[in-house]
Amino acid sequence: MGFVIHAQEVIENWRIEFNEVQPHSSPGGKTPYEFVKEHQSMRQEQKLNLIWYIFRGKVIPPLFYFSFLN
């Protein structure tokens, strides 16, 4: 049983280093964690912009626009 626990710890440490610490060859050298956080922030901004335009009466978006609000 000790081997399984040790293997889980090694894998978890690797996962954390890969996703949150290790530099990557992606644009900007972002880790997967950094990329997701930035994408979530951009998505939130898009939602707020869409809501702002709707309330100002500037645009009535097609229904498929609302699919990304979930």
Description:
With 70 residues, the chain is an all-alpha fold. The chain has a domain at 30-70. Helix content is 64%, strand content 0%. The chain has helices at residues 2-21, 32-56. It is elongated and about 65 Å long. It starts with a helix and ends in a 14-residue tail after the last helix.
What is the topology?
Layout: H1 2-21, H2 32-56
Give a quick precis of the structure.
The chain is mainly alpha-helical and 70 residues long. It contains two helices and no strands. It has a domain at 30-70.
Please give a handful of descriptors for the protein shown.
single chain, 70 residues, 64% helix, mainly alpha, 2 helices
Number of helices: 2
Percent of residues in helical segments? 55-70%
Strand content: under 5%
- Please compute the radius of gyration using only Cα atoms: 20 Å
Overall mean pLDDT stands at 73
Overall shape: elongated
> Which class do the helix and strand fractions yield?
mainly alpha
What is the H/E string? HH
State the end-to-end distance. 42 Å
State the low-pLDDT regions, or none. Answer: none
Strands, count: 0
Task: Please give the largest β-sheet.
Answer: none
